[in-house]
Amino acid sequence: MADYKNHHIEMWTKEHVHAWLCETVQINPEYADIFIKEEVSGADLVCYEKQDLLEMGLQHGPAVRVMKRLTEHLSRPESTQSRKEETQPKQINKETSNENEAVSCKTEMPSPRHQTQRAEKANEGPKKTEQNIADLILQHHGEEKGLKITNCILKKIPRNDLVQSFTKKVGKTDQELPSDSTDSAKVKKETDHGEKLKNLLTCGASTLGHYSYFILVMNKADPKQLEHLQFLSKTDLFCVLDFDPNSNTDGACKLYREFCHANLHCPVHFQGEPSAVVKNLNLYHQTSWVFCNGRLDLDSRHLDYQTWLKETHREIEQMVSFMFKPEVLPSRRCLVIFLLLSPVESEKDPIFDTFMTFHRQSGGEENIIHICNNEHTFEKWQSLIQKKYEFDIKKKSIYELDWSQVNGQIVKLGPHSQPFERLLPSTGCSSVILKKKDEQRMNTLDILCENECEGAYDENSPGFHNLKLMVEEEFYRGGEVKWLNFYISEKQKAKPFIKRHKYEEVRTKITSQIKMAKSTCVLVNLFHHPGCGGTTLAKHVMWDLRKDLRCAVLKDSSADEQVASQVMDLMKYGKSDESFQTPALLLVDDSKDTEAAEKLRNCIRRQFDKNCLVKKEKSFSSPVIILNCVRTHLPKVQYKYCETDSQYITAELTKREQDDFEEKLQELKENHNRPENFYSFMIMKSNFDKKYVKNIVSNILKDLDMQTKQAKLLSIVALLNSYIPESHISQSVCEDFLGMKPLLWGKETVLERMEPYSNLLIESRGACACLEELDLTYNIKRSDITMDLLHCDLFFRTGLGKDALILFIQRMLIERQRNVENERDTQFSLLIEKIHTDEGQQKVQEIFMKASTRYETMASIPQALARYLYLYDRDFSQAIIWQKIPDRLDSYIELAKKATNAFQRAQKLAKTENEPYEDCHVTKDTYNKSADMGVIEIALIIFDIISKLPFFKVKDPKWQLQSFLKGSISMTKTSFEFFERYFIYLKSRKFEEESGHRFRRKVSEHFKKYISFFTIEDELAQNLSTRFLQESIDIEDRKMFLEEQKADTFAGLLQHLEDRSGETMEKITECYAFLIEHSKSRHPKIITNLILANLILHLLNPKSKRILQERDLIHLLRQAMLEIRAQHPFPELYYLALLLLWPSSSTTEIDENIVIYIKAIRSSSRHQLPNSLRRRGAISHIFLGKKPGLERLVPKAKLYYTNDPKESNRLWQSGDIFAQKDIKDRLLRVHGIVEQGEVYIEYGKLKIPVHPAFIDAVRTGFSTEKVTFYLGFAMTGPLAYDIQYEN
């Protein structure tokens, strides 16, 4: 290697330049070879600028590094000159040589830090003015020049005595201070470690982005270190494992939450089914801050090592194991950072055990780095690791930088946009700053700011030019449009973004709704063909309105209440309660219908009413507009029949649009290679010509080898995109399917591996044509591809990006299409109907049977199979031909049994899970009513067929049906009884009323048909009459009185809490006492009603002489509880247990069975009305007050009086009722905790679970926080009202 160090840079040869680049700059040798090829000498190099390096072929990162090192080298002329002098032969002794070396290495201007050090050293001697002056000269010019200058000055004064003192001082300084060569070495080490830190975090890139996820493991920081941890809030952290138990009160966690949102978790929170954990903890969307060594603001116990090892170590192992499941975090895109803020002195330290866990679970040290701020901490940590493992962590460690340097380097690597504030439009053309942590809390919304993309990039850099080309290419190849596409089209000297011909109509509909608002939330539907640019049009309108409206795209459509609450937060953000709100535009993409958006609209309207933060007329002037993009194959038809404001766009271009596309193609040709291969763009340009698409696909697939992984993936993606246009398969799943391995300094993309078929992966029309070509040319049928998909285990692993894929596959198999003209659906999904038509029934059954093994816990697949069996396989229309029925009756009944069993299974599954059902266009209830309806319909079909058999004319049909109907009648009656409870006990919400009435009529018609087959036996009616006549007249009179007063049921008794006096309740209580006394056996229902009647009487008239005392009521309750234990199927007795046994504010003893009773009341209420209660909620008739005894129970009816029922209803629905002073005075505010999304009251060591009365009262993300609230008692258990977070 050429010895460039002994020559001035301008004397370097090209070999010297090459050596310097490889040794000092440490760039890739391939880049260094370019300098040899271009014959770049040292004299040439000093003339170079960064643009020259880029034009030579260097990438942006290496070019910046070369220029930085070159600048550093050129800034040290003295050093260069001294090296030249050192090369001259000198006849001096060893001591003199060493002294000269030390002097020659001095720089002309030392750093401020070195100046301070020298000044301190100088002040240690006699404080003489002359010596201070000498020291200043020495510091400024260095020893060699300083000595000459000072000697000259002192001799001219003349002061020879100071000349001697100065010379003596120079010698002392040389001995006491580290030589400048040491300082230079330290600077070099810091420089090297700064570059090393950048490379470790970016894998050689210039900014963060190589790693998708960062996991930070840290121990306790002292207060001085906290000011240098701002980089935590500048980095997208997946999670933080914090071993400081005080972090939330005075540590890193508190600092982080001042700027960013983080959910506070414990390791145990990561246990469970991966997709559920990800959803509950809001992983990937919000940072999870995990307390791994206790949390002292919740638990006063401090964990020593042995206790930690016993109680927490196993939980951390399970948590880390969860993180490194392939479906959760792809290890090659995840970097684990151990941030050692304090020394780890022993292997008996929890953070060291955690390192060993990460090393074991992640498969080695490859993706783990270590950062500390001094060599001592590092060496101790290094020695601990080397005792356990053979590898050395030095290459993966940073320890020569102080925390301020670490902080500065990482912040510098972050996005260029970080110094810029994100802005939201406000009233009067003003703006408000949107804080990062507030934006993170609104996690269901992707917020579009008015200054979106501004300042996010260095727009003059070559990197931005490359990014522009890449973003354009992705979009015109068929990718989803990004905000950057619109930004680029505005800023660059190019043709503006193409406006579709319906652009102005859609924009006008939105702006007119703001000017003439008639409601707090309005819906505008945009119906469009899949792949015709409907979403792009909607986003284009939103982009152009971003400075007038607060805009957001809906990210999560599964939680209407949460979305509505966050939309309200977006509108109110940065405003006082009295000020005008800025209108909001919410984009709902990829809808299949209008009903889901209508549901959301109604939910937002209720949220407006609940908040009531502004007067009614003001709220109307600031509405929320929902722009609902609906994919449909019949956009014109749906537009025609849609009752709300709508517009449509089809796969057909106007003449002007075709001209715009032609102009755009010419522009693309100037900047892109072969834009003719941007098939999505070219298909639109051809006006969606089917022949053009077919020719493209045919040419691309002409040499396809169906045995390759690429061909199989292509066929699967084509199938999904054809039937679910918005579907996608995550990059990591594609990589695993193709067997792609990560590369050290880069990676091959999926699209590159899939060439030349990659263009077909993201275009729905290309996908449809691809399926046709596979069928015609290669005889690959849709059923073949579907079975390949269902047989591949990889596609059914839950986790990041995979849950969505499982849902896409399910929808492809079961989602039916609505014909808007006749309001009928296809019998099955379009895929199933196509396979049924082209390939026959056997293929369909095979697909459903295989799918049922993939979706074992979901009701929809067996439900679809059951429908297919009785609609197609049995051919009932032909079966009613008289003579043929008896011969095949057994097979039809057997088939009906199978279908009924499938529906019965669906009924059971519906009680335990939430999922989309077959009728995907219908607004879903949590309970699957379709399963009960299926049982009824199958029974009626069979009854109808058998009743038409000829021999039924002479024989009693009931006896002929006995063998089949023995079990069927019971299930059918159970389904009818469920619908009776469903319609009578639950209130339909406003937006469900119309569909609810239709469904109820349908059930009523089925019931009439059912009873036409079966009637009540005369003998049974006679027995009933006889039994009633034998009853005691007194007992019968009292029962009639209770029925007249609606006091014969538990629910009816609760209504008497609204009575102003206790007179009626006294009679009711007397009736129940009489019935108990004269009954031969005590029925639990009578005992339950007796206790409630006495309790209500006590609350209405505590001085009544007929009332049973509290101790007597508790005695009766305990006797009844002993008889039923905790398995009673009805919730009423458990409700009484909560009222009578709940501790008051002065209670010292607590019945620990309270938790058991809460579990029992929740279970029994779910048993009576499965899961539907979650949608409609439950009413608390009694609240917990401040007084002792039964007086602690406060009826809701006595809490607030008003002559305006609407006002009262509004206050209760919004929760504003709890702001009333008299209610605050009467009710007890209890202290509790939110943990894993659940609310608990803590009485000593007992944690009592409580449901929130309003779902959106508890923040998402399962963060563990302290709260206070009021307590109400409902038939589903205790409810928490007006939840307030202490933090």
UniProtKB/TrEMBL annotation:
Pfam families: SAM_1 (PF00536)
Biased amino acid composition, Basic and acidic residues: 73-97, 117-129
Residues covered by region (Disordered): 73-129, 171-190
Recorded GO CC terms: cytoplasm
Xref: InterPro entries: DEATH-like_dom_sf (IPR011029), SAM (IPR001660), SAM/pointed_sf (IPR013761)
Domain SAM: 12-59
PANTHER family: DED DOMAIN-CONTAINING PROTEIN, STERILE ALPHA MOTIF DOMAIN-CONTAINING PROTEIN 9-LIKE
Protein name: SAM domain-containing protein
